[in-house]
Amino acid sequence: MRELSLHLLDIAENAIAAGARHLHISISESLATDSLVMTVQDDGCGMDAETLAKVRTPFFTTRTTRDVGLGIPFLAAAAERCGGGLEISSELGVGTTVVARFQRSHIDRAPLGDVAGALMAILLRGDDERLRLTYEHRIDEWVFAFDTRELHDLLGGMSPGDAAVRRWLSEYLARCEQELKEQSCPRSDLSTT
Amino acid sequence: MPKIGSLDDLKKIRESALRDLTIRRSTGTKITVGMGTCGIAAGARETMQAILKELDSREIEANVATVGCIGMCSKEPLVDIEQAGKPRVTYANVHPPMVPRLIEEHLVNGRVVQEWVFGRVSDGGVAVPTSEES
């Protein structure tokens, strides 16, 4: 994928397909330790040891339309290519955690890209409108955190998917991501985010 | 730890949304965008954003949802448009520049854009491919 945020979107889809009620996504960047870590954690159905061993191969998938599942192998390759790697832990009936680590300044490290857009795509998932999404993006000591539960309380009867809410929500997310980038990165480093 | 974003900002979303609610034209439409790995890789997120933007600028109310892979990966990004009382229409290879015409013709003028259609789901629920697909 040309942006890391697209990997987040992709792994989040796995979590939703696994029946997650709570999806937690975090991005943690450290200029000091030159690391970028993306985590997707869910409370979906989880995987047994046998399945867990198979998910990294391109020929394993739970969908029935064809026998190819590229999301996890793609992310693992992207992380390994950048001096990092992919860790997956899972427990049947409990959930799964996927952690992708990258050397932040690595020349092959794709940009994060449009994270706000990826979050909106997750929030607009049709199958389950009651999904709780918690998100945290940290760059050194700066943090942007978002919890749909907080938003639900404020929206009263409306939901994030409602036409009138969507627009304002996606603007809010985009604005916060932009502000986070500007606050945390010195001018000279903006081009590498 | 310096924090970005605030509860006050979230509250403003509600106020803006309430104002917005009154001016949108309701169409009873549901638009679904495929968002499996294949869809994402083909640019479905950008297609979804183009659809949201077009609906906003035309002040049209339509439900927009994303779904996982349905198996026609080479046809992604796939966009389904479903309206009450009409068969669901699936458009294939939908990229952002195609969106304004799609919304204008299908939603506003009520005309299916045949050249972009993959198949129509008849009342019996069976997908009927267009001639070039058979």
The percent of residues in helical segments of chain B reads 25-40%
Share in helix of chain A: 25-40%
Which two chains touch over the largest interface?
A-B, 51 and 46 residues
Structural class of chain B: alpha+beta
What share of residues are in beta strands of chain B? Answer: 25-35%
Order of helices and strands of chain B: EHEHHEEEHEE
Strand order of the largest sheet of chain B: 3-2-4-5-6-7
What is the count of helical runs of chain B?
Answer: 4
Are there runs of chain B of 5+ residues with pLDDT below 50, and where?
A: none
* Cα separation of the termini of chain B: 60 Å
Structural class of chain A: alpha+beta
Helix/strand layout:
The complex is a heterodimer of chains A (193) and B (134).
Chain A: H1 4-17, E1 22-30, E2 35-42, H2 49-54, H3 71-80, E3 85-91, E4 95-103, H4 115-123, E5 132-139, E6 142-147, H5 148-155, H6 163-184
Parallel strand pairs in A: 1-5
Antiparallel strand pairs in A: 1-2, 2-4, 3-4, 5-6
Chain B: E1 3-4, H1 7-21, E2 25-34, H2 37-42, H3 44-57, E3 60-67, E4 79-83, E5 89-91, H4 99-108, E6 117-121, E7 127-129
Parallel strand pairs in B: 2-3
Antiparallel strand pairs in B: 2-4, 4-5, 5-6, 6-7
Give a verbal description of the structure.
The complex is a heterodimer of chains A (193) and B (134). In chain A, helix 4 (115-123) runs antiparallel to helix 6. A 6-stranded mixed sheet of chain A has the order 3-4-2-1-5-6. Chain A has helices spanning 4-17, 49-54, 71-80, 115-123, 148-155, 163-184, and strands at residues 22-30, 35-42, 85-91, 95-103, 132-139, 142-147. With 193 residues, chain A is of the alpha+beta class. Chain B has 4 helices and 7 strands; from the N terminus they run βαβααβββαββ. In chain B, strands 3-2-4-5-6-7 form a 6-stranded mixed sheet, covered by helices on one side. The longest helix of chain B is centred in the first third of the chain and has 15 residues, at 7-21. The model of chain B has no long low-confidence stretch (mean pLDDT 84). Chains A and B meet through helix 1, helix 4, strand 6, helix 5 and helix 6 of A and strand 1, helix 1, helix 2, helix 3 and strand 3 of B. Strand 6 of chain A pairs parallel with strand 1 of chain B, so a sheet runs across the interface.
